[in-house]
Amino acid sequence: MQHDKNCEISLYRQSVALVYQDHIPTSNIEFSQDVSNDILHQLNNVQHELSPEIIQNLSKKLHASKFTLLQEDFPEEHCWLIYSQNLTKLSVRGLNTLWFIDYNFSAEGKRIPVGILALLERLLNPNSMKILTELEIDGYQTYFLGEWIQILASRLPSLRSLALPYCRLSNHDFLVLCSRFQNLKQLDISSTEIVSLSGIWELVNLEILMACDLELTSQEDIEDVFDLKNLRVLDISGDRKYDLKNVEHFCKCKKVLPNLQMLDLSRNLATPQMICDILTSHPTLTCVGLVGLQNDIKFDHNRVFSLPATLLDFSTLESLPNPPVILNTVTFPNSINTITHYAKNCFKNAKKLAKILEEVANNHEENLKTFTMEHFQNFWDVIFNIEAHHLHMPFFEIQRVRCLLYIYRSQKNFGECKSTILYYLRFLTCVRWQIEDIQIDEIYKMQVLTWTLLNELEWLDESTVDAIAYRAMELLMVVDTDNVLFEKLVTNLAKAMNHPSEKVKEQLPKNVRVVIKLKSYLNAKHEIEEEIECTYLIISHFSPFLPSHGIPGWTRACINGILNVMEYRNRIGLPTDVALEQLALLKDLSLSETAVFLEKERLEMYM
Q1: pTM (global) more than 0.85
Q2: pLDDT, tens digit, for every residue of 73-102?
Q3: Which among 214, 384, 390, 446 could disulfide-bond with 70, CB atoms 3.0 to 4.6 Å apart, if both were Cys?
């Protein structure tokens, strides 16, 4: 039996490798459910479309029960392989990147319209629809057409777990959901824009309710939750919003959930007394989330200040009989315990983890700098193995890289962790983030932090340097020259080009849009230090090879940039030798000839 298992694992590895090359083993062996699920998951990593023959052959060998669609621009042809399996669990993320979802309806705002039935029929065969027990749809930047909840209920009769984060739900949709899915045990309606949980009493079997980032307006909006006598987990925490009063509304109901074990109240406005009252009335609680909890404190002139959780007194909570575990970031050990909990239990919610990491990076930088190798390994195991890129949440990676940067700067010998870190950082540099207006600055910040860290490492190879430079050039095409991020991108591209990389030197002159932006920047008038530094970097790092490619107007732009640098250095009393040397190299002149040339240029400019 062991031999057969080893054989199956060996064939699994062969299959994964050969799928990338559009081949499949000819063996008649069929794969077990677990191995089939792993092979199906690899579809998210395939960079080309599989042939119909391969899809047909592979579909007969697999017996998959679950699939999570993560890949942006997932090929329509691969849907058949998903459709061929009898799935009980399906998760769809990155819905707004699936190019084959096009129904010729006008988009509403920045959301893309999607027909729920067409989506289901592409991925689920009739038997899968009958037996599907778990469905997750990330509705980021999309909305569903018509009575889509009714369609879900009629087509998926066995559903026990439904997650609809970021899907736009109307109050009507929610009431339909509650009346049609009475067998649900788990429900996630986080960030769905509904403002009332009225009607949820009909979900009598519900055990887990994730209602994160819902702005409930009164106690009536949450009162029906207390009819859910089987509820074990409740999340009414905040996320994007920082002034939620969900805790206050919860307290005003003065009712009890008899089986509640986990309650997340993070990022709400609340007083210590409210928290004490909730914990006292719910002795069954074993864990309570109080990350970023805020407290309204009124001063003179009716000014309201929000104080972070570090100023709340948790000692009174700990003195309660059988106190639950309090998840918070008051101390560094507490922060690590909190991260560990959320990483294990809320791994799908990258935003929640990002907020915790942000507090760790902001409040405990010094602790991160004192990490030993053992600390780092534990931190890595908890945090750096969480894949968040497919959730379209680059701000999670920002905080993750910030923490890594603090650790690296104080502990530069990573030993055997080196290759793992390098792999992770190269992934961040190369990944094709979706650049949407709402996240564009976050994406740039994440990339800048990544490059900053990469450029401090001593063990970069040429392919990594190339990846950094190529991604910088891609982003430079999007950023306006008057954006401070443009200067940061130029700085990091210049650092990447400090390494001898002929591929980058060949690629940059061909990227006309980037070259035009660099010229435009040199020709503009700059007067502050950061702008002058960026000007000098462009001249010193790109001029040695760009003129040889015959870029029109490049030399003229460089001369303008040098004049700008010299004027700035003269104004603040610094020598101008470095600028003269750059001009000498540019025009192939001696320093004395350069001085004469420069005076002539200056006179012509003022005339």
Answers
A1: no
A2: 678 888 999 999 999 999 997 777 776 665
A3: 390
